[in-house]
Each structure stands twice: as C-alpha cells, then as structure tokens.
Amino acid sequence: MFLTGEFSQISRVSKRLLQYYDEIGLLKPARIDPHTGYRYYSARQLPRLNRILALKDLGLTLDHIAGIMQAEVSDEEIHGMLLMKKAELEQTLLEDVQRLRRIEARLQQNQLSNDALDVVVKSIPAQLFLSIRTILPSPEEMLQLVQHVQRVLPSRVDQQVLGPFAGVVYTYGFTLRNNDVEVGYLLNKPVEDPIVLSEEYVLRMRELPPVQTMATAVQIGGPDLVFVALGRIGQWIESNGYRMAGPYREIGVELPSSGTFDEMIVEVQMPVERVSRSSNFLLTIGE
Q: What is the mean pLDDT of residues 37-56?
C-alpha cells in the first residue's frame, strides 16, 4: 500500500484532492493506521479514482458522480459517456485539447487489466547528466524550459556526445505548480564546460546515481499520459512487495519530430526496494 503522498504521485492527483474525496466519501483510504493515523491507498483503487476523474471531466457535479458510483454504472456506459464528450470537445476551442487527452488517458488505463505485466525491472548504472534543476511555477513554464533545452542544446554539443533527453521529478506528491524538476540530456561522454541558456538557466554536468532496482514502463504519447505508466508501475510495486525508493525519472526514448506529442515514446523509471515483513507498516515518512 501507499502513503497519501506516494499514491498522489502515482495517480497524478493532489494530496488535497484525495483528502477531500475522503471527507465526502467518494474515495476512502484502503487502510488507516490506528496508531499513527497515516492513510494508506491501494493500487486497486486506481480504476475507481480514474472513473471519478473522468466523470468530473465530463462536467458532472460531485453529487452526480457519487450517485453514479453508488449505482455501479458499468464501464461500458462510462465508456460511451466519455466518447460522447470526446465528440463535443473536438468541436470546441484548441485549449480544451488537454482535457480531452486526460479523459482518453483515464479511459485507456481503466481498460488495461494486465498493466503490471508491462513493467520491466532492471539495474541502472551511474549516468552522466548535463542538466539544470529548478523550481518551475507552472506547467507552461516547464514546457517552455523543456522545449528550450531540446532546441538549443543539440546545437551547442556534439550529437554523438548527447544521449536521450531525460527529466527527474523530485516533488513528493503531485502538484501542477512549483514542481522541483531536473531536465537535460544523458551523456555518452563528459561535457566539462557549463552550457548557458540564459542568466537564469545554466546546464552543468553531474552524475545521476546508480539504481540497483528500477521498475520501468514505456508510454506512447505526451507528458499528460505519464500517469498511465506510473499506474502500471504502482500496480507492480504493490503486487510484488516493493515500495518507492526515490524520485522517478522520465527518459525520452523517441522525441516528436512533427511538433506533436502523439508519437513521443517515454520510459518512466521508478526506483524501488523490497519491503520486509517486519517493516510493512512501520514507515516513518509523514504524509
């Protein structure tokens, strides 16, 4: 099981929203430790959470969503409702496209019954990383920084030196604002001199530490779909007796060449460690 912050990161839903859904009875924690009061969620709750969020994106009120969930409306009916909303959204302004992608992604995850089978576990050696770590106030500024690095860096550094584009997310839990992230390129060879993008942004080489046990999943599509891979990893973690053991990474296996994210391939990497029986519910990490 996962603490609220860990479940928040896997589901890409804020801790505050999870607590609110708990208060109104939409999504209760799977377990509350009677001694510490810590709330624990299960990966098996992801389909229910995805249904709630999909219905919310349809424009339904929380009271209506609660009634639908209580009536146990079938996945096929929800699927039909989502497809109808998709048809509506395609006729609206371009700014609604991001909402459409979220609905499609939630629907995709609900329909995959063997998500954990797609997870590959491997050992990752230490890697040279030409990067910048910063707090980014908004998703728009994060996207601007990523695009700026991808546009400028290949013209400043030999192509044979650059490996795949990568990002590390240090923020505990999910939030749209003030994310602590590190972005740049993995390196095939050292780059000693810093790369100045602007007065504010300077990329420097450092070494990403090795990870003995890394649970990985590949996702096709843009950044909005990363939570699908995180959900698959979350199911694998819970099913196999592991726990999250550090910030996760996103590795650009194939970046878009046409200006769209539809063909983008990202490998999500989550450091994990096995949970011993004696320490199953003796975590000292706060929520």
A: 92
